[in-house]
Design goal:
Helices cover about 50% and strands about 0% of the residues. The chain has about 230 residues and is mainly α. Its EC number is 4.2.99.18.
Length: about 230
């Protein structure tokens, strides 16, 4: 048990096949109805649970509707509106600044290129990938959040450590048609089974091919530390 395939390509295909069976309906869990709402929600979700973000945006999206609304609001007021979100002061500043750029340079519309999105304050490649995929139906990369970062290393799919390098490495082994779903599958599995602190290896359908399995391995490959 806990023996990965010799080929990383075979390992990846087995992981995908099994997770597609386990989570056939997985998708993004943030609530939004416009591209702007998606951008705001993803910005708020950094180091914060999607559940918490959805609770906050239920009221936030009733109050603010356009990029100009966010661009002109007093930053302290916006911070108060999102004060149950982690790092709400910084995030309120980033949202105001990003929306000012959207108004001034993009006619109030969320841009649809990686370069333009990552030029916005507070928007990194992960956020831009989510907005492109779910707002513009453009898939040009793999979203690497904490779940993808953890599971891809535990499963022996990459040895890279930073999100940027993990994404570049995974793009060479994940079939391009699966780039978007790959993220959702790993997020679902990371939440349900392969959690950060107490993964349920005994009941994990990937245990037989996982080189980090607690059943017969001593090291968590996500951290490089002993279990």
């Amino acid at each position: 048990m806990g023996t990965p395939h010799e080929s990383r390509d075979d390992q990846m295909l087995d992981v995908l096949d099994q997770l597609y069976e386990e989570y056939p309906d997985t998708t993004i869990s943030l609530h939004f109805s416009t591209r702007l709402e998606l951008l705001i929600a993803v910005m708020l979700s950094a180091q914060c649970t999607d559940e918490r973000v959805n609770k906050v945006t239920a009221d936030l999206f009733e109050k603010y509707h356009t990029a100009e609304d966010y661009a002109t609001v007093d930053q302290a007021e916006l911070a108060e509106d999102i004060n149950s979100i982690t790092y709400y002061n910084n995030k309120s500043k980033w949202i105001v600044s990003a929306c000012q750029t959207i108004v001034e340079e993009h006619d109030g519309e969320v841009p649809d290129t990686m370069d333009e999105l990552t030029a916005l304050t507070g928007v990194g490649r992960k956020t831009a990938n989510v907005v492109l995929q779910h707002g513009h139906d453009i898939v040009e990369g793999i979203v690497v959040d904490t779940h993808v970062q953890r599971l891809s290393r535990r499963l022996g799919l990459t040895e890279e450590q930073t999100p940027e390098k993990i994404e570049a490495d995974l793009m060479g082994v994940v079939p391009e048609d699966d780039w978007q779903e790959f993220t959702h599958l790993l997020i679902s599995h990371g939440r349900a089974v392969c959690t950060a602190q107490n993964p349920d290896c005994a009941d994990c359908r990937l245990e037989a091919i996982c080189p980090s399995s607690q059943v017969d391995h001593d090291v968590d490959l996500a951290s490089g530390e002993a279990w």
